[in-house]
Amino acid sequence: MKFELEYGFNNQSMPKFKEYEIKTIDDIKYVIPKVDKDNIILYSIVYFEDYEENDQPLIDFINLGKLSLENKEDTDKLLIEYVNKYGLLGLIHNLPVNRYYTLDTKVLLKEFNNIPGIEYYDCFNTMEVLDYFKVFFPTATDKEIKEIIEKSNKLLSQRSMEKFITPDLNKLYYENEKYYEQADMIVSYAQTLYKILVELKKDDGKYVDHSLIEKLESNNIRTNLNCDGVTIHIRSLKEYIDENFKLFAIQEKKYLKLCKHCGKAFTAPNPKTEYDTFSCKNQKNVYQSRARNK
Q: Is residue 187 domain-shared with residue 57, that is, in the same domain?
């Protein structure tokens, strides 16, 4: 069933550092903030509502997945280009099933996650809160991590409304120069989104891999019904991409498609549009003409 839905994102935001780089720690590649020679770290604020009209964070992310599958040697370069433009995904919020996980003794992880050492089973996995934070703060000491957890819980106890909690927690985590995200976790998610889109766009009777599509699961996404439609309350770029992708999948007004020539993702207001650019359309016509004249 298809729905026509007016939607919007609330005015949530994430701090974004000016530049990032990739660094290997204990044989794991991380995307980390880049510090200049004076040890000054500059950051800006990303407002998700600013992306509502152009959808580029979603499109660029899907194409990161596509290109990283086709050109593995360029993956690090493509990843840094994306993160420098949009920031990290905010994965620390995305994996727990329990929304305010710092208040608990353990983090309940959703079924599909890419944390090293966590096996996939048909059940949930748990981690100690301290160990979970070490995934995202690998160079921080236990003392530093405990201080972050304590500050998180203090913020949760002081705030009475969700809209005030998220910005404070985001600032606490993402403005910390020791908050890192694993490169493989980001790239794997981009590749999964691209593969899901390929499955969703199958229209030739081929078997659709529903088990792959079902991997796109979101935790703790709040929505509100209003006079104009639905407002989605998101806490991270990862949640923004997830929800935007799902909305494209069910909407008839705006189509998320794959170019029939180059294979890149793009949005088209017309359901009959098959190419992302006139160049692709012209090149395809040239190739077809040459094939007919052989």
A: yes
Q: Rg of the chain over CA atoms, in angstroms?
A: 21
Please give the residue range of the domain that contains residue 267.
255-294
Asked if 248 and 259 sit in the same domain, the reply is: no
Nearest to 84 by CA among 46, 140, 126: 46
Q: In which band, very low, low, confident or very high, does the pLDDT at 30 lie, cut at 50, 70 and 90?
A: very high
What pLDDT digit, counting tens, does each position of 181-192 carry? 999 999 999 999
Q: What are phi and psi of 13, to 5 degrees?
A: -150, 165
- Judge whether 1 lies within some domain: no
| CA atoms 274, 277, 282, 283: torsion sign | negative
Residues 135 and 281 in one domain: no
Instruction: Enter the pTM of the model.
Output: 0.81
> The tokens of 248 are what?
């494209």
Q: pLDDT band at 54, cuts 50/70/90?
A: low
Do 42 and 17 form a contact (C-beta atoms < 8 A)?
A: yes
Whether residues 206 and 156 share a domain: the answer is yes
What confidence tens digit (pLDDT) does each residue in 110-129 have? Answer: 877 666 655 544 456 888 99
d(CA 147, CA 161) in angstroms, rounded, equals 23
Q: How many domains would you assign to the chain?
A: 2
How far, rounded to the nearest angstrom, does the alpha carbon of residue 157 sit from its chain's CA centroid? 28
